[in-house]
Amino acid sequence: MVPAGALTWSLVSTRLGLRNSVSIRCARRLIRAGLLSLACLALLPADIIDRIAISVANQVITEAQIDEEIRVTEFINGDKLDVSPGHRKEAAGRLIEQALVKREMELSRYPMPALSDTDKQLDMIKAGYPSEAQFEDALRAYGIGEGALQRHLAWQLTLLRFVEFRFRPSIQVQDSEIQQYYQQQLAKWRTEGIKVIPTAQEAREQIEEILTQQRIDQAMDRWLADVKMQVNIRYLDQTLE
After folding, report:
1. What span, in angstroms and rounded, lies between the C-alpha atoms of 21 and 13?
2. What does the H/E/C string look like for 173-202?
3. pLDDT, average across residues 10-17
4. Does residue 3 form part of some domain?
5. pLDDT digits 0-9 by tens, 81-120
6. CATH number of the structural domain spanning residue 41
């Protein structure tokens, strides 16, 4: 059995996802479908245009989306609410990358999951509170509702499934790489004084998955860098650039 904490999973969601709670909630307050062509901006009242923070190709990211991304992220992570300019810029960066992924999903007609698919994740979060009332109090303290939380969870689930679908098939891990990783971990375990150390065979499956996830992260980083060069990203809120 692998010692607890000895192998650190490098989930692809750390780039866009679970580390910082993924969210790409479409701006229903502004546009019914959450998508808007830049050519249509001139047709909107000035007060609505002012609430659009960033455009990514034919998608828009609103100030409200950025605010909600921060609030839901910090609620899920259990962090103190911080809507400072630095956190807003970080949230905007995540939403830009998520918009690029969503664009790819739409082009490939990748299906969105039903909200009911996130019931298990939602129940796990609720289980962290002594009562339903305290869970609702916590939501109010962060200025979000259960619906927003569940939409974010649905997007997390969609993103994780899509990234696996998009990048995993091209990933290959060699036996030599697994052995090298095991030897590195073996030295670390011995230094830490861990007494029950798994054999290379016992640790093989988990090591292979760790290396696969690392390669998926790297593949996604390269893909995002390429797509950012091809897509027009426009900052209407210059403080987010």
Report:
1. 9
2. CCHHHHHHHHHHHHHHHHHCCCCCCCCHHH
3. 36
4. no
5. 999 999 999 999 999 999 999 888 888 888 877 777 788 8
6. 1.10.4030.10
User: 4 in a domain, yes or no?
Assistant: no
pLDDT of the residue at 118: 84
- Placement of tokens 């993103």 in the chain: 159
Q: What is the arithmetic mean of pLDDT over 151-164?
A: 89
Q: Are 155 and 98 in contact (CB under 8 A)?
A: yes
pLDDT digits (tens, 9 = 90+) for 103-112: 888 888 888 7
Name the amino acid, one letter, at 174.
Answer: Q
Q: Are the beta carbons of 22 and 156 closer than 8 angstroms?
A: yes
Q: In whole angstroms, what separates CA 121 from the centre of its chain?
A: 15
Number of domains in the chain: 1
5 lies in a domain? no
Q: Does residue 162 sit within a domain?
A: yes
The percent of the chain in helix, strand and coil, each rounded to the nearest 5, is: 65, 5, 30
